[in-house]
Amino acid sequence: MDNGKACGHVQNVQFATVQKRFKTSGFKKCCGLCGQQYLAVSQSASLWLCLTCGYELCEQDIKRHAVQDFGISGSGVHALAMDTATFTVRCFRCIIPIEPQKDTTLNEIVEFCKHQAGVESVATFLPEADEQESMEDKTWSYMRGILNPGHRYPLNAFLQCLARSSFFMIMVKQSLVPAVIEIPGGEVKLTEEVKILLPSIKVKTPRIVDETLENIIDIINELTCGESSIVSPVKLDEFHGTDMHPYAYIVKKLAAVLQYPRDTIREEIKAVLPDHLINQEENFEAIISKYQQTIKNYEWIEMSKFGYSIQLIEEENREEKTTIYSYLKANLATLRTPRLPNDGVGEYTTYRNCFLVPPLILTPKFSKHCVDDFKTLSFPFILNLTPFCCPSINTSLGKKPILYELFGIIKEKDINRYAAYVKVRTPPLKQDTVKIEKMIKNLQLHYSKIIYSQEQEEYIVPEPESIEEPEPVDVQPSPGKWYYAQDTYVREVTEEEVLRVRPYSLFYERLINLPDC
After folding, report:
1. Which of 40, 115, 237, 246 could be a cystine partner for 45, CB 3.0 to 4.6 Å?
2. Residue 128 lies in a domain
3. Are residues 108 and 36 in the same domain?
4. Last residue of a domain, one of 73, 101, 117
5. 243 and 341 share a domain?
6. Among 195, 198, 397, 171, which Cα is nearest to 304's?
7. Is 289 exposed, middle or buried (0-12, 13-18, 19+ CB in 10 A)?
8. Could you list the mean pLDDT of each consecutive 10-residue stretch along the chain, which spans 517 residues?
């Protein structure tokens, strides 16, 4: 059987795109979504190269990638992929092997990849079989420098910190899986006399990632893939000319991925409504509004897991020595959460909801004059946010302390020059990953309960004046080593040096080593 001709998806391969991606970054050693290493010569343990967009993914993720429809701008269906260890090609839509020799463009891509890998390609980047067991433990064992391709904003330092989060890439992977939700209908009032009962509709989102976010994911995976060489990232032009904190910017990018397509929603609604309602513009807009508010709530619940970038301004009447707690207390009344595109989360972005449910990642950023004026700022390795959180949430979590661990700091060296202090820990074990996924789901359930609760008064954060600074907790940080990194320069540092830093931004994440937290 001529599989090359039998599979119509061969026409979607893009030689120029694959060639451009290879010239930029070469062969990857980590999955572009899950970040795991796949280096063994076997179809179950190697990476697959999408022959339409050039993205490299593990077999599980390439299957999800292949069933998406990226539209005309994304060259349609990305069905064909090549095993980067064996150079065999497979269509993950038709579920058949493809003979590259049967198609000129396909054969050119495979030969180009072989040439890029070299004659000894398989041997050069594949470890011995007996090294596989220790590979996962070594994944985070190296602290790599980053070549600065003209980044003036603290992007390199930020990426160094984010790469060491136990949560971020797990959350990203969950978020990029195409989703289908069923939106309940319910009663809507059109006029004083007319009420109608709306049916439920199903809405899906393809979760298409733009190039900037894709490049950021690539860089983070490269930083933790077990190599000791310097990372040479692509230039991320979108970060130039913006004063937005990098984490807030990436959350905004993820929000665009998570957003449900409004045009599709309108078409789905039209398909289930009678013509007389569709033709009455005023009534139709009222119906659209009913569905879209529910969708905004879904989007907000999905975004809640990524936490917040909190801007902290200077305290009034601050003392010679101040703490991170006093800054949080002074700024609680004005805290803002990131907005989704098109005001996606409405009222939930305009009130002090940052601590209604404890976020997984917390990135307090100090305004520039705060950093310049610091005499001594005290920030702990273990942050206790219990006094700042809504009491009802604390009760629902079993009255356990809500603790965060410091894993990264960004320091401003001088004008537009930044450095990172990063804690390199062992990667999450498989059972810890399961616990993280469970925590993410529980967090979203708590947000869902708040948003849909009829008793909103139950969920109120404490008044700033009533908050008292918590006592230190007897919890030890997770084992690991601290490093200083400024672009390509990296050195190990002591905890004492870390605590003396004047921070531009701090990176905290929820502790996961407490039972069932």
Report:
1. 40
2. no
3. yes
4. 117
5. yes
6. 171
7. exposed
8. 62 84 70 55 61 82 69 64 85 82 86 71 34 40 73 79 88 78 75 77 76 83 78 69 68 75 74 74 75 73 67 55 75 50 38 61 73 67 83 60 91 81 81 75 68 52 67 85 89 92 89 54
Please tell me whether residues 335 and 434 are part of one structural domain.
Answer: yes
Tell which residue, 183, 243, 238, 178, has the closest CA to residue 211. 238
Q: Does residue 168 share a domain with residue 83? A: no
Give the chain's domain count. Answer: 2
Kindly state the tokens that stand for 445: 């359930």
Rounded to 5 degrees, φ, ψ at 407 are: -130, -5
In a domain, 448, yes or no: yes
Which ranges of 338-428 does DSSP label H, i.e. alpha helix?
Answer: 368-373, 391-396
Write the pLDDT tens digit of every residue in 86-109.
888 988 877 788 888 888 888 888
Q: What is the token pair recorded at 25?
A: 């970054």
Summarised one tens digit per residue, pLDDT across range 300-324 is 667 766 766 666 655 554 555 578 8
One-character DSSP codes across 434-452? HHHHHHHHHHHHHHHHHHH
Beta bridge partners of 384: 403
Single pTM value for the model:
0.66
**Mean pLDDT over the full length of the chain:** 72
The strand ranges marked E within 162-275 are 179-183, 186-189, 195-198, 201-205
Per 3-state DSSP, the chain is made up of helix, strand and coil in percentages (nearest 5) of: 40, 20, 40
What is the extent of the structural domain holding 111?
A: 10-117
Query: Are 226 and 98 in the same domain?
Result: no
Q: Is residue 192 part of a domain?
A: yes
The domain spanning residue 302 has which CATH number?
3.90.70
In a domain, 328, yes or no: yes
d(Cα 218, Cα 323) in Å, to the nearest integer? 36
285 to 7, 182, 442: CA distances (angstroms): 44, 20, 34
